[in-house]
Amino acid sequence: MDKPSETRSAEDRVIIFDTTLRDGEQSPGASMTLEEKLQVAEILDDMGVDIIEAGFPIASNGDFEAVNEIAKLVKTATVAGLARAGAKDIDRAAEAIKPAKRGRIHTFISTSPVHMKYKLQMEPEQVYEAVIASVTRARNHTDDVEWSPEDGTRTEHDFLCRCVEAAIKAGAGTINVPDTVGYSVPEEYYALIEMLRERVPGADQVVFSTHCHNDLGMAVANSLAGVRAGARQIECAVNGLGERAGNAALEEVVMALKTREDVMPFWTGVDSTYLTRASKLVSAVTSFPVQYNKAIVGQNAFAHESGIHQDGMLKHTETYEIMTPESVGVSATSLVMGKHSGRHAFREKLKGLGYELGENAFEDAFRRFKDLADRKKHVYDEDIEALVDEEIGTADDRIKVMALTVIAGTGGPQKATLTLDIEGTHTTREATGNGPVDAIFNAIKEMVPHEAVLALYQVHAVTEGTDAQAEVTVKLEEAGKTVIGRGADPDTLVASARAYIHALNKLVVKRARTKPEALQAG
Ligand code: KIV
Ligand code: ZN
Q1: Which residues line ligand 1 (CB under 6 A)?
Q2: Could you tell me the domains of the chain?
Q3: What is the pTM of this model?
């Protein structure tokens, strides 16, 4: 919680609506498996997010299943499912959220001239009728209905007011105002929310919500302007994930409200000490790296490099620090453990880092930690996080890397001998390639034939020093499907093999899930 209770007022409470698993997951390359979505939902629930938009149930069986499973899992938050204005969408969303303690249907339709004419090919009056029909249908399923005019910030004001009024009359309790294309500026967005609250009959009976995209880098500023104008819900995503340049970043919104209560007397129910863990988890499961200088959760957000800054910090932390690292859950990097550390110490360390593993996953992680400690002098928290994140991501994999030997160097051609466990059977192949990584990938292709194309190969050092673990990211594309795999190891080549195999495993799962239709929702 943000503020001492005596300074809080109920009218100033801002609802945090997280859309990492819907708008965020929609962004190209950010798709997550069901297990990964469940992990993200769990941490969002634990940190005190009020509403988790878990997906777009009509989009695919996988999306439906994710919303449905999250609805069963979540303890406190409301679980929302997105739906277009059609009856099928709304009924499917209602079905998906049924197991939730608190469920919401979020239905939307475009209202801007350009969207109505070219995207929907509907007349404004048809859209107006669809608003009434969709909200009415959603209300027959649940009392908690949110309505959004897509491309709201580019919608003609009189028409927007008519649609909002109709949605309220039909029973919507939340009116979301999307800046779908990230075009607005704070003064304008403020004026839009103010105008709606002043002009629309019944506006005082509903919660206004912001949904701002970051195309011009103003998503957070616009969201806060909306709150100052009377909105009391912010739609946002961890690490600012979302379509194109993303949505307002959850961690920025929460910390801006918390840190600047002197100028913005609003508060949220989010426990900010979860922010770093949530950011790392979302980055790990999407393989979207967090920019080093990203506000709140970037690696450098609390680093002080220059002599003048360090000197100031040593004299008094407030010289250069407006919030403490602890307030967002950053623990100072510490030399944690070595090869003599036992199971108990490792379990305690995992707990401290926020991981709770089942027995099998724990044993696997412990074995890999011991291997790492044998090979790497200093084992840091980041090393353990990389190792465990990979363990969690690959626990159910059908194909596993068992052994790898590589001959590399100036002599060429480089050669890899790789052993894989493919659903319980060990197979070994030797292959050459244009470099060691190419040789490894060729060996994999011989054992697991596939048509996928390598769209990205990226190496990142988890910590500093020449013995640092390498974290490799591999993106594969096959028939319009994209998957991302990760692997970590002090040996970059082993990490590369693991990452490729991780991606292939995901591809196998994805192939089994059919996408009936491609849908768009910014
Ligand atoms: O950006 C947008 O307009 C959306 C809506 C579906 C709310 O994501
Ligand atoms: Zn959006």
Answers
A1: 23, 108, 148, 150, 176, 178, 180, 211, 213, 521-522
A2: 13-286 (3.20.20.70), 303-392 (no CATH), 397-514 (3.30.160.270)
A3: 0.79
